[in-house]
Design a protein that fits this description.
The protein is an all-alpha fold and about 375 residues long. It is built from 21 helices and no strands. The longest helix is centred in the middle third of the chain and has 20 residues. The radius of gyration is 21 Å and the shape is globular. One of its GO terms (molecular function) is DNA binding. This is Helix-turn-helix domain-containing protein.
């Protein structure tokens, strides 16, 4: 197999080598035959490392065989090596670490400032810096003198970054830890805030049904869809959860549920606010996930996502690039990737999904954009293009 072969074609090749029908292969994965067919035809992308690994395991091959030689290994100096301190901090379970006599309690005010800084770093997509900040933040939650909301935010940031880096088990652990803290508060809003990263971690792990159930339940607990029954913070949390539930439904190939949930989320948001922009961006992502790439592109061309944080806008552009590639428009994908690279270079240099998208865009382009090639070189992506 050569470097230009799409991932879906490689999946089909190895499935046939293993003498499996699409239905047998789908049953092994817990997916539908339609899902397998869309993957093999390139309609549905395998751009999540967790799902790619599940497919590779079912085929009894190394994931690199599905990615091809054109897709480089993840640079250890930027991602893999730095996840270990976070994993180590999470394994130091707070319930088993009593405060010693000479240990200074964490100052909640100072911790809040540090956490706000870390959140701003995340929103600007400076993932290498956040990787350095999080272990100490996690260690300082162990004294249990901090308000629950601060501990939940620390776990949320950890889970969201781990999802970005493809470290799904770390994301799942951090999100579950945050939800455990929230459950002890009897505060529906804190529980909703904590449920959101758990939904994201479950989706990244390929647990789409569990992600759907978690987020839809939390959404309706915090803000039932009735007029004047909730606060702005509750409406924002509910809208974000409904968006995640919709994306999980898209992963599960359920279009009616996707659009109903996004419509419900839209009713909870201000037309000019970032929450509405997030819902609109999710429509593009959902359409692409469902295989309706032309609709995704049409929606993107009429959408303004400026109210969103830099990180969200750049991640959204990766989804848009995938839609362009699936629609056979390599120059459109290049434009989206270049825009993402200008906004947030770590989205392409640090994220496995970003580097994989760069490699695919260059591989599938008959005349690769020189600026995109330079961006790929800076990200450590090499290949025969």
């Amino acid at each position: 197999m050569n470097d230009g072969l799409p991932v879906g074609r490689r999946v089909a090749y190895w499935r046939q080598r293993r003498k499996m029908s699409q239905q047998v292969f789908a049953d092994r994965l817990g997916k539908s035959k339609s899902w397998v067919d869309k993957v093999e035809r390139g309609v549905r992308r395998l751009d999540k490392w967790s799902v790619l690994r599940e497919v590779a395991d079912a085929l009894d091959v190394d994931p690199d065989l599905l990615l091809g030689e054109a897709t480089p290994p993840r640079p250890a100096d930027e991602t893999t090596a730095d996840v270990e301190p976070i994993r180590a901090a999470l394994t130091r379970h707070p319930g088993l670490l009593p405060m010693t006599a000479d240990q200074t309690p964490t100052d909640p005010c100072r911790y809040r400032t540090r956490l706000a800084h870390a959140d701003a770093v995340y929103q600007h997509a400076d993932y290498p810096t956040l990787l350095r900040l999080l272990p100490d933040l996690l260690d300082d939650t162990h004294g249990r003198v901090l308000p629950a909301e601060l501990r939940i935010q620390a776990y949320r940031l950890t889970a969201q970054l781990a999802v970005k880096l493809g470290a799904t088990e770390v994301a799942w652990l951090a999100a579950d830890r945050g939800l455990a803290v929230a459950a002890g508060t009897d505060d529906p809003l804190l529980e909703a805030v904590a449920a959101l990263p758990l939904g994201q971690a479950l989706r990244a792990a390929g647990r789409h049904r569990a992600a759907f159930e978690t987020t839809i339940t939390a959404a309706h607990q915090v803000a039932p869809l009735t007029p004047d029954s909730d606060t702005p913070a509750e409406r924002a949390a509910s809208a974000a959860l409904l968006v995640q539930a919709a994306l999980a439904a898209a992963d599960h190939d359920d279009p009616p549920t996707v659009w109903d949930l996004l419509d419900d989320a839209s009713t909870l948001t201000d037309p000019d606010g970032p929450e509405r922009a997030a819902v609109d961006a999710a429509r593009v992502t959902a359409a692409a996930t469902l295989g309706d790439h032309h609709t995704a592109i049409e929606l993107h061309q009429t959408l303004t996502v400026r109210p969103l944080p830099i990180e969200h806008r750049a991640a959204y552009l990766l989804d848009v690039a995938g839609a362009y590639l699936a629609a056979g428009d390599a120059p459109g994908a290049a434009r989206a990737l270049l825009a993402a690279g200008q906004l947030a270079p770590p989205e392409l240099r640090v994220r496995p999904a970003g580097r994989a998208m760069l490699a695919e865009a260059l591989t599938r382009s008959p005349a690769p954009d020189p600026h995109l090639r330079a961006l790929a070189e800076a990200a450590g992506v090499n290949g025969a293009w």
